Amino acid sequence: MPLFKDLLKSGESIFRDTIVLDYDYQPKVVPYRENEQMRLATVVRPLLQGYNGRNLFVYGPPGIGKTTACKHVLRELEDESGETLPIYINCWKDNTTYKIFYRICEDLGFKFLQAKRTNELFALIKGSLNKKPVVLVFDELDKLEDTDFLYSILEDIYRKSIIVLTNYRDYYSELDERIRSRLSPEFLFFRPYNESEITGILIQRREYAFVPGVWDEDTFKELVEKCVETKDLRIGLYLMREAGNIAEERSSKVISAVHLAEALKKVEDFHIKPKEGLDEELQLILELVKEHAGKKIGDIYAAYAEMGGEISYKSFQRRIIKLQEGKFISTEKVSGKEGNTTIVNLSNEKKLTEF
What are the chain's domains? Predict the structure, then answer.
C-alpha cells in the first residue's frame, strides 16, 4: 500500500469554493422555501403594477433561511425590475435610526454624510425614495435600540413595501402602537427545516464546496445528525468548513471522523455573530454571565439590578435569549422545590447537543 496516496500534494486542495459554506451565502436557488418566497413576492407585486405595496412581518427561529429567502427575492426584483429599488438593512449592525438612515443614504449613492444629522439624512432619503417604488427589508428587527425610523418611513415614503424579519412573533406587540397601526402587516412564519431538508441542503453545499469523494460518508452522516440536533443550518456549514480546514492542514485527501471530532470541539466556541456586534447592554449582561455562570437567571438579574441596570426582568430575559441564539451563552431548564427555573452558562461550558 503506497504511503502517500492519501496525502495532498503541493498546491492540491480538497475545496472547490469555500464561499458556499458561509452562512450568509446567497445560492441561485433557495431549496425548500418556494412557498415562503412566493408569499414574499406577493406582497411586493403591487409595486410592479403601479400601486402601493403590502407589508410583511416574517418570523421564525434562527438559522432556517429567513434572510436567504428575502435576499433571493430582492435579487430577482433587482434583475427583473429596474424601476423598483431593493434595500436591505441588518438591524444587528445598524441598530439605531441614525445608523439605518446613514446606511440607506450610502446604498442610494450619497456621499459626504459624516456631518449630517438624522433629519438631514432622512431628507435625502425622502427626496430619493419618493421618485420610484421601493422594497425595504429590515432584518433582525428585535436587535434595534429604537424604531423611530419605521415611523418616519411609514409616514413619508409613499410607494413602498416593508418587510421585517425577527425570531419572535411576540416582538410585534412591543412595537409602538403608532407603528403597528401604520404597518398593518401580514404575517409569515418560517418553519424549521426537517431532517431530510437539512440533509439535502448540506449535500448540495458539499457538492459545490468540495472536490468529489473527499468526505467519508459515515463522517458526513454524523455531521448531518449534529446539525439536525441543533436545528440550525449554520452549525452544519461551520462544521463542514472546519473539518475540511483541519483535513487540509494535515494534507489529508479524505475528511474523516477524526477531523470532524476536532471540528466539534471548536464549535463550542463558535458564535453566529461577532461579540463586537453586541450593543453595550448585551455586552454588560454577557460579562455578568461570565461572573455568575451556573446560576439562576433570577440571581443574575438581581446582580444586574444591583449594578444599576434599568431594564425590566422580562426585557432581561429577552436579552438572555438573544445571547443564547448568538451562541454566546447556553441555558438549561431545571426543576426544584421552588418550581422551574433557568440556569445560565457560557456556551463553551456546554456540549453541542445541549445547545
Answer: 34-189 (3.40.50.300), 193-267 (1.10.8.60), 275-354 (1.10.10.10)
